[in-house]
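Help! Submission page says 'invalid entity' but I think these are all valid:
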Amino acid sequence: MQSGLISTLILLPIFASVLILVLPDSYKASYKWISLLTLIFMFINLGTLIKGFDIKVPNYQFLEHFEWIRLSLGNTAILSIDYIVGVDGLSLSMIVLTIFVFFIANISSFGIEKKEKAYFSLFLLLLASVIGCFVAVDFFLFFIFFEFMLLPMYFLIGIWGGPNKQYASLKFIIYTLVGSVMILVVMIALSMSNTDQFFTNEYKKLVYSFDFRLLSDAGNLLSNSILSIDKPATIFGLDARGFMFFLLFIGFGIKLPMVPFHTWLPDAHVEAPTPISVVLAGILLKIGGYGMIRIGYGFFPDEFQKFAILIGAVGLVSILYGGLNALAQKDLKKLIAYSSVSHMGFVLVGIAALNKEGFNGAVFQMFSHGILASMLFLVAGVIYERTKNREISNFQGLANKMPIFTVAVAIAFFGSLGLPSLSGFIGEFFTLFAAFQSGPIPKIIPIMGVLGIVISAVYLLWTFQKMFFGEFRTLPDFENKLPDLNQREFLMLGILAVLTILLGVFPNLLFDYLNPTINYILR
Amino acid sequence: MTPESIVFLNLMLYLLGFVFLLGLQYTVFKELSGWISLIFNVMGLVVSSSVELNYQEFYAFSYHWLNVGDTHFEFKYVIDNQSYFMYILVQIIALAVQLFSTRYLKNDPGINRFFAFLNLFVFSMLGVVLSGNMLQLYFFWELVGFCSYLLIGFWFTKKSANDASLKAFLMNRVGDALFLAGIFTFFLIYGTLDFQELPIASITGKISHFPFLTVNEIQNLAVLLVFGGVTAKSAQLPLQTWLPDAMEGPTPASALIHAATMVVAGVYLLGRISPIIPSEAGLIIALIGSFTSVLAGLSAAFQYDIKKVLAYSTISQLGFMVAGMGMGAVGASLFHLATHAFFKAGLFLSAGAVIHYLHHEQDMRKMGNLIKKIPVIFYFYLICSAALIGVPLTSGFLSKEALLNAAVAYGYENHIFSIKTLVPIFMGITAFLTAFYMVRQIVMVFFERQESPVEKIIDSTRKTFGKTIKSIQDILNAENESLGEDRVIQFFRNLGVFDVAVIFLGLGSGYFLFSKSVFEYKDVWFLKIWGGGDIHFHWVPFAVYGLMILALLISYNTTFEELRRYYLGETKQGWQKLVANFLLNHFYIDKLYVAISSKLTSFKTFGDDKKPGFEGIQGLIYYFDKNWVDGLVNKLGNLTIVFSSLVAVFEKRFVDGSVLGISGGLSSLGNRIRSFAKGQLQFYVLGMVALTLGIILIRILLV
C-alpha cells in the first residue's frame, strides 16, 4: 500500500517554500499565511494518517518504498540506498509534536519584520527536513534530512537572531556537525556490515543496505565485518561495536543535549528569535532522543545494556547540573535553556532503564517537554517583545498588570516542575520509576534524580515569585509597555496549555500509540 | 443514583466551581462569588450524603488510567469507612469556612479567585481522600499542595505572604521527593500500589535488585520514605517549619487547609498504609510524632501572635495523630483527626473574627476585654478550646483519652520500660502544654483587664458585631421572667455570618456528635470499626485531669504576670530571655534551615531579590560551566578553525580533480551563503565534513 500520505507531509512544505521563493516581494504579507495554510493542510493530512493508523501494529505503517541509488562497488558488492518512509507509534507521536510546535512557531513568526521571504521559505524547509527525519526508514535518507536540517536552522539563528547571533549560530552548526560526523561513521560502518540477504541471493553479490528494518536485525550481520558480534574489530582499544555506541551516544547526545556537550544550547537559545527557540527546544532536541532510541538502541542493544549505567549517570548529571545552572541565571531565556538541559536529562535516565516503562517515559517526557519548552520560550518572548529585555531582576509584580499572562506562566512553570495533572509529571515520574525498577541501574540514580524535581521547583518558583508577585515595579521605560496578552499570544499559549493539561490527565492518549512500538523495539 | 455517578458528579461540581468562579473575574457577579461557591458546596454535600454506606461494605470503582509497558495504573475511587467520613468531613468544614469567608473577604478585589481556589482545594482534597492507590494519592497530594501555595500567597503583593507560600511549596516538594522514592520502593517490593492489594501482595523478585538491605529493611525503608512525605504535608520534624509561616494566608484558608483538612492528609495516608507498617518503622514514626508534639507545644506556649499559637498547636496535635498511627492505633488517630478538624477550624475562624474585629491586629498582648465585645465568639472559642484541651463533655476529651490510652498501652507493653515508653511520656507532656497555652491564649485575648488598648481600634468594626452584642446583652441583662421568645429570636436574627460559622463548628466539638456516652469512648464509631475501644488503664483520664488543672492554675497566673510585665515595659533578662526567644523561634530550626540554604545558594531568604553572580553552589557550577566546559569548547573551536584552513589549503593543492570539483561546488555554495549572511566559516566546515566523509569512506572500503 503506497498511499503517499507521508511523502505529502514532506513535500507540502517544500512546495510551499518554493512558492514563497518565487512569489514577488509585493506579496510579502501573504507569506506567513501561505506557511500557516500549509501547516493546516498538514494537520488534515495528519488526521488521515492517524485515522488510518492501526494502534495494534507495532511495525512501520504507510510504508512508501522506492529504489533510489544502486551503486555498484566492484564485482562483489552493490550499495543499495532506497527512499523508504513510514511511521510507527514512535515516529507518529513525534510528527504530531512537530506539526503542533511548528504551527505555534508559525503564529509566533507573524511578528517577523525582516526578510520575510527568506524567513518563511527557510522555516518551511526546516519543517520538511524535520518531518523527513522522523519518517525515514532508511539510514541514508535519515542522515540526509538530519544534516539538511542544520542549514535552515543556521540561517534562521544567524540572520534573525540577537546581537551575538554570528557566534551562536556558528557554535550551533559546528557542534551539531561534529555530532553528524560521528553518526555518519556509524552509518557507513553499519551498512558495510549488514547485507540484504534477499537481494544478495538474487544478485549473487553482497547487497549493502541502509534499511532500518534490516539493520536492526542481527541476522543480517556479516560474520567477517568489523561490527560482527562474535569477533569484532578493535578501534582505539575498544571493540568496534562499543566504539560505534560511543559515537552514536555522543552524536545524538550533543543534539539532546547532554552534559558536557550542552554549551551550544544556551547560546543558541539566547540569540535565536522566539519562534526559532520554540522550534529548537520543542522539536530539534527531540531528534537526539529519537535517534538514540531508534538508531542507538535499535542497532546496538547489547552495547546499551553494557553501558546503561553510563547513560543513566550522564542523564542524572544533566538533570542536576542543568538545574543548578538554571538557578544561577539572571536572564530568563538562559534559565529556560538550562532547564531544557535538565529536563532532557530525564529522557536519558528513562532510556538507560532499558525497559518498556523507561522508553515510554522517555518519549513521553520528550513530547511533554516539546509542549512545555515551547510555552516557556513563548513566555520569555512575550516579555522580550514588549520590552526588549529579559533580565529577571528588572521585573516585579507583573501579575498586577498581566493577570491572564500570569495564568499562562503558572501553567507553563508548574507543568515544567512536574505538577501532577500537567504533562511534565508523567514523563518525569515514569523515567525515574522505570530506572528504579530496572535491574542494572544503581538505585542511587533515580533517587538522586528525584532531587531534580526539587531543584526545578526552586528555580521556576523563585523566578515566578520574583517577576510576577509583589507590587508592580519595573524599569521606568517599560512601565507602559506591558499590556496583557494579545489575541495571538493568547491563542498560542492557550493551545499549548490545553495540550499539556490533556496529556497530564489522559496520558494514555500518547501511551496507546507508543506501547506496541516500544514493545517491538525492546523485543 | 449509583455511588459511582455520585462521586463523579461531586468531584465535577467542585471542578466546575473552580472554573466558573475564575471566569467571574471581569463580570458584575464577582461580588457574589462567595454565595455562588456556597451553593456549589451545599450541592456537593447534598449529593455526597446520598451515598448510603453500611459499616461492612465499601465501593470501589476503577477506571483504566494508563498502561505503560507491563505496568498498569488505574484511577480508583474507594468509598470505605476511612474515606467516607473524610469525604463528608472535608465538605462540612469547607461549608463553615466558606460561609465565614463571604464576610471576611467581602471587599477583597480577588474574592472570586479566593473562592475558586477553595473549590479547587476541595476537589483535590476529595481526590486524596478517595484515592485507591498510592500514585493517584500522590497526584492529588501535590494538587492540594498547589492549592495551599495559591492560598498562602493569595495576597500576592505582600512579600511575606509570597515568601511563605514559596517556603511551603518547596518544603513540601522535599517531602514529595521522598514520597516519590517511597512509591518507587513500594512498587519494587510489592509490584502494586493499590491500597487494598498491598497488604496481601507477595514480594516480587525485583526486590533482589536492591543492594545491601534485607527484605524487612527494605519494607521499613519504603514506609519511612513515604513517611518523609508525611512529615512535610503534616508538618512533623524535620519539615514542620513551613506551617507557622503559612499563617500569612487569609485566616479562613488557614482554618480549612492548614488546620482541619490538608495537613491531616499525611495522617490519612499513614492510615491507608497502616496494615503494612512494620513495627520498627512504626516506632520511629511514633517517636517523631510524639516528639514533634512536645516541641510544637513548647513553642506554642511562647507565641504572641494569635494565629501562630494555633499553628503550633496544630503541629502538636498532628504529632499526636502521627504518633497514634505509628503505634497502630488507627481508630483513635482517625477519631482525633475528625474531632480536631471541628474544634481547630472553629478556633481558627474565631481567631479570624477577632483579627477582623481588631483591624488585623494579631498580637495577643494588645487584645483583651473581648469577652464583652464579642461574646458569641468568646463562648464558642471556649468550647473549642475545651475540646482541644480535652475537657469532658467535648469530643476532644474522647479522642484524646483514646489516643493517650493507646499510647500508654503501647509504651508500657508487658509492664516494662523501653524506648517505647517515651511515646506516652511525650504525649503526656503535650497534654499539659496544650492546656497551658490555650488558657494563656484565652486569658490574653478575651479576659478583662485594665490596660487593654482594644477600645481605640474597634469603633469602625462595631457594626459587624454590634447587633449581636446588643441582643445578647438584652438577654443577659433581662430579668428572668422577661426572657421572652422574641428576644431569643431577635438574638438569632442578629447573628452575623461569623457567629453562625463559629457556632456551627463549636457545636460540632461537642461529644454528642461522636458518642452516646459522655465519659467513655467505647461506643465511638471509629473505635468500633478499627478497634481500640478497650480501656486498659483507668488511671489515664485522672492523670490527665490532674495535668490539666495544674496547667490551668499555672497558666492563669503566669499569663497575668506576663501581661503585667508587658505593660510595665519590663523585658525578660538573662536565661529567661534566652529560653523565651529559643522557644518563640521554635528552637531556631527554621533559622538553621534558612542559614544553610542561604549559605548554599547565597539567597538571603527564600525570595531574595538579589541574585549575585557566581555566588552559592549554583554560581560555582555556572562558573565552571562557563569557563571550563564552554571555555574548552571555544578553545577547541579556535583550533578547528586553524586546522580547517590548513586543510582547505591542502585540499586545493593536493587532492585530485574530482574532489576539487566537489569542493569547488561547495565553495561556490559557500559564496552564495556568504552573500546571505556574512559568515566566514561555513565553507571550511562544509569542506571539513566532505573531507572527513571521504577519508572515512576510503578507510572503510579498504578494510
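Support: the input was valid. A stray whitespace character was the problem, and the output above is from the cleaned input. Residues 396 and 467 of chain A are 4 Å apart (CA to CA).
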